[in-house]
Amino acid sequence: MNLAGKRVLVTGATGLIGRRVIERLLEQGGVSIRALVRDPTKGEGLRSLPVEIALGDITRPETLREAATGAHVIIHCAARVTERGRWEEFWQSNVEGTRHVLEAAAHSGAERVVHLSSVAVYGIFPRDGTDESFPYQPCGNAYCDTKIEAEKIAFDYFRRRGVPLVVLRPGIVYGPRSPHWTIRIIELLKANRLFLLGRADGICNHVYVDNVVDAILLALANDAVLGEAFIITDGRATTWREFFGHYARMLGRQTVPQLPAAPAKLLLHLVGWAFRARGRTPPLSPKVVDYLQHRAAFRIEKAKTRLGYVPRISLEEGMRRTEAWLREAGYLRP
Ligand SMILES: NC(=O)c1ccc[n+]([C@@H]2O[C@H](COP(=O)([O-])OP(=O)(O)OC[C@H]3O[C@@H](n4cnc5c(N)ncnc54)[C@H](OP(=O)(O)O)[C@@H]3O)[C@@H](O)[C@H]2O)c1
To answer: Which domain holds residue 32?
Structure first.
């Protein structure tokens, strides 16, 4: 579709991907943007941009109807993106929230909806070479399993209600402002709380935030991909050791401290018992050791051939841009 003159509603506008897609659409020009914001204080950061701010919460459908009215395009980035929290909280944001966004899109007659899903729909331990022909892998993790249910609802709206949908499944998204895979890593390293567990030679399936935004813009432009899902990564088999090593070097360190697998698991079991004995949720499961050693790369051939996706920003360039942003934002100070 041609975006000229269109009104674009972005949910999750205060988050990593939502904010960056807004900036890129503004750079491109020719569209008007409505940003869905649930917390006015967080929305302050968007006030410097020429966007209309609509206050709303995807778990409260009555707040979405108005935000979606007149929106030709909806880019649905809002979700509960974390490892912690109650199942019900994930269900409300990721599953019911997606249902409400798709219902609002159907009601307002949106011409295109891009739903941000995740490779998490293939579980925590996906098979090497996974592509879009592989089935969902529910695994008991609240984030992963609710992202599966969210996709099912989105596809249901495509099939039954004719909502013109494209689904994107990014790998781990890093880059400027990334709370999960950039800022948190730097903060853990600075606090000497990040360790390479076991061999840490598992594949992390990263994707630079602007590469994800490229895929979103391609999904909007391409009319031949409605009802399709695409895995989006940088297409490179980088190990966690290498990925975290980039951040360590930004802090002037040569290596990330390492803990062999067996003592790491024992330690995490002991920490888990101690937390549970006090009625608290442990910060990490011993499974994280296996996760960091799990060697499975996703295939992105479908995105390349059908969407025209090219991971334009390499890991080296992405890390260079990320470092420049971290330095400017003060995160690299001791
Ligand atoms: N980051 C990754 O590594 C990654 C990887 C694969 C897929 N994805 C997917 O990509 C999408 C965007 O992720 P992201 O990295 O941009 O996440 P993020 O930085 O954590 O942002 C999440 C956004 O969702 C908003 N939100 C959460 N619950 C909401 C609700 N009930 N109503 C309205 N807004 C709500 C948040 O608002 P507040 O600011 O008010 O909290 C925030 O703006 C998500 O669907 C995520 O599952 C992310």
So the answer is: 7-177+205-237+296-318
Taking only the tens place, the pLDDT of each residue in 28-59 is 999 999 999 999 999 999 999 999 999 999 99
- Structural domains of the chain, count: 1
Distance, CA of 319 to CA of 312 (rounded, Å): 13
- Does this model's pTM top 0.85? My answer is yes
Reported as a single tens digit per residue, the pLDDT across 269-327 is 999 999 999 999 888 889 999 999 999 999 999 999 999 999 999 999 999 999 999 99
The answer to the question of residue 1 being in a domain is: no
Q: Is residue 30 included in any domain, yes or no?
A: yes
Pocket of ligand 1 (CB under 6 A): 12, 14-18, 38-39, 42, 57-59, 77-81, 93, 97, 116, 118, 170, 172-173, 179-181
Q: Does the residue 159 lie in any domain?
A: yes
Is 102 part of any domain?
yes
Q: Please report, for the domain that includes residue 120, its CATH number.
A: 3.40.50.720
- Tokens standing for residue 278: 């006090």
Interval between CA 82 and ligand 1 midpoint (Å): 9
Report d(CA 6, CA 72) in Å as an integer.
6
- Complete DSSP assignment for 219-252: HHH-GGGTTEEEEE------BHHHHHHHHHHHTT
**Coil, strand or helix at 210:** helix
